[in-house]
Amino acid sequence: MIDMKKYTVGQCLLSGLLLCGCLTGAYSQQTKSLFNVRKQQAENAPARAEAKSIVPSTDFKKTTITRDFISEGVAVADLNKDGRMDIVAGYYWFEAPNWTRHQMAPSRVFDPRKEYSESFLNLGMDVNQDGWDDVVIIDFPGKPAFWFENPKNKPGDWQKHIIADSVGIANESPGFVDIDGDGRLDILCGDKAKKQIVWLKPPTKPGDTNWKRYALSKENVAGTEIFSHGIGYGDVDKDGIKDVVIREGWFKGTADNQSGSWVFHPADLGEPCSHMQLLDVNGDGKNDVVSASAHALGVWWHEQVADEQGGINFKTHLMSTTTAQTHSSIMADLNGDGRADYITGKRFLAHHGRDPGDSDAPILMWFEFTPDKEPYYTEHVIDNDSGAGLNIVAQDMNGDRMPDLVIANKNGVFLLENKIKK
Ligand SMILES: [Ca+2]
Ligand SMILES: [Ca+2]
Ligand SMILES: [Ca+2]
Ligand SMILES: [Ca+2]
């Protein structure tokens, strides 16, 4: 294990600069901001989470599916149609209830300290609507996404289909959200080539295998570099139409979600982050944004406020410095009070141990919101030896109607069954 305590802040800054120097021009826009994050941490805040002992809650029952690093994305679906939810991690799926491992296509176990896998985010859905759930995989940033077609319990490799004419997926936290309200999840992301905020729509007719690309923003906008960090979908201005947020501002949604006409409004939504969640944190009727640092330290809520001209801007409030590298988040009502909670966790060894705190204990946590009571949230640590990958699943796995959590990262694949008492 690399002990980051041995390194001084200066060494961390130096290694950060060296890392930035090695990356391509596509990364240059973010180099400055990432550097600023590290500089600010060194000057004003702890560069890493404090070494306090974190006692995991007894509210979740953990099952280790595997300790192998095979994917940083995860999904659930009943792939063999036996009525039980199975777990997907990259090119592998684990059959409930004993989590027997199956391979969809040739792959291998990756070295968590040296390599990335070939699977960054996963989704289970019946793409071709033949009654069998398929598996969607977002690959390394900038590569096209693809899906594996379920062979309906027949042996052999699953057929791989590239999504939407090989659109290169930009932004590191693409969203699985229903953009057009047809009840099927779409992919919200950037288009690497056109630097445009787009959505990729799965086929609508049974038997069809082709996804379509539709533009929301104009070309050459912020948030669309392959390594851009942070994107979300929700109604910022409460006009009844959902908008797209990135950390540099928001694109105002219109009824036309296909022609790339959504106008950008600059606003300050803080540091590079993972999936951005919209909710009214403080109960003042305006939607705020909750985000977490993708590669540094911090969970924040960004309070929606009016700027001097009466426009929309945000004031950032720090919620947590419990764990760094919080490179994914999801909303789900974990405690059954009817209000969605925020779940995030450490992307263990995000940059293979080179970033402050990325080899610390892999913590998974949730935040319960209390809009009528300051500071409007309560933090709960779920576990200190799982963490999160690049997406988190919150879905009922054991039939008790409470959402459970499933994660996959460089620490393995884990199921955390929700035992919170209502
Ligand atoms: Ca099953
Ligand atoms: Ca299918
Ligand atoms: Ca709106
Ligand atoms: Ca608010």
Automatic annotation (TrEMBL):
Keywords annotated in UniProt: Signal
Stored PROSITE patterns: PROKAR_LIPOPROTEIN
SUPFAM superfamilies the UniProt entry points to: Integrin alpha N-terminal domain
Recorded superkingdom: Bacteria
A Pfam family: FG-GAP_3
Name the UniProt record assigns to this protein: VCBS repeat-containing protein
Native source organism of the sequence: Spirosoma utsteinense
